[in-house]
Write a structure and sequence with these properties.
6 helices; binds zinc ion; 9 strands; 38% helix; nine-stranded mixed beta sheet
């Protein structure tokens, strides 16, 4: 059971991270949106409110079926996509961005390949979901399909969708995805880049797990410097 204090904390956290979107280069104006799940309710940013003017009271609260529980503004147009991600995954928070590197990549590539081993934090190479209009049920379906076994997906000619066990982790995944897309673009500017193999990624994931468990035994709560993106999250999987 989640009480009023937790809901208020979620509202404030959503406002705090929304304010960072522009500075972090993840969206412009009122674009992009994010949400937090609290049991059978979802707190989500509203549609069309500028992030520099967003207040905790503007955050909309809906049920898992999308029915409004508490909202003085209109919930984000991407509410169906957020709800679909919660229905299909164990996500506690979802972040949708319109970040430049990811969108540029989506126009030319079907996938963001493993240009750096940090991609194991997202579950492996990131798929590009075929273009579908914003706010549509088709987009929600395509996003969920592209997220299979991953914590991030790219939406063609649109942006990204990332999730995590907390809003901080979901947001960090969005930042990591944008950074990886930038690294990939830079690498391609030099020629045909070397991509990490499946075996190399599996080795990274195994080593990160080993270090994480080792550190927990020795120094509980100490983040692993080698694989900070794996702290506390589900283990990476590499579906075919
Ligand atoms: Zn969008």
């Amino acid at each position: 059971m989640h009480g009023a204090a937790e809901l208020q904390a979620a509202r404030e956290q959503l406002v705090k991270y929304s304010a960072r979107l522009a500075d972090d280069g993840l969206a412009v104006g009122a674009a992009g949106n994010m949400s937090v799940r609290l049991g059978d309710r979802v707190a989500i940013t509203p549609s069309g409110v500028r992030y520099d003017e967003l207040q905790p009271a503007d955050i909309c609260v809906v049920g898992l079926d999308g029915a409004e529980v508490e909202a003085r503004e209109t919930p984000s147009t991407e509410l169906p996509m957020h709800l679909a991600v919660y229905a299909a995954t164990g996500a506690a928070a979802v972040v949708h961005t319109h970040s430049a590197e990811v969108i540029a990549l989506s126009a030319s590539c079907d996938e963001l390949p493993a240009i750096h081993y940090a991609i194991t934090g997202l579950g492996g190479p990131v798929r590009v979901a075929e273009y579908t209009r914003f706010g549509s049920a088709g987009l929600a379906d395509a996003a969920v399909k592209a997220l299979d076994g991953r914590r991030a997906a790219i939406l063609q000619n649109h942006g990204s969708i990332c999730y995590g066990p907390t809003l901080t982790r979901a947001y960090d995944n969005a930042l990591l995805l944008e950074w990886l897309a930038r690294v990939y673009r830079l690498a391609r500017s030099y020629g045909d880049p070397r991509i990490l193999t499946r075996a190399e990624l599996d080795e990274v994931a195994a080593e990160a797990r080993r270090r994480r468990y080792g550190e927990r035994r020795q120094r509980p709560g100490t983040p692993s410097l080698e694989a900070p993106w794996l702290e506390g999250g589900p283990e990476p999987t590499f579906p075919e």
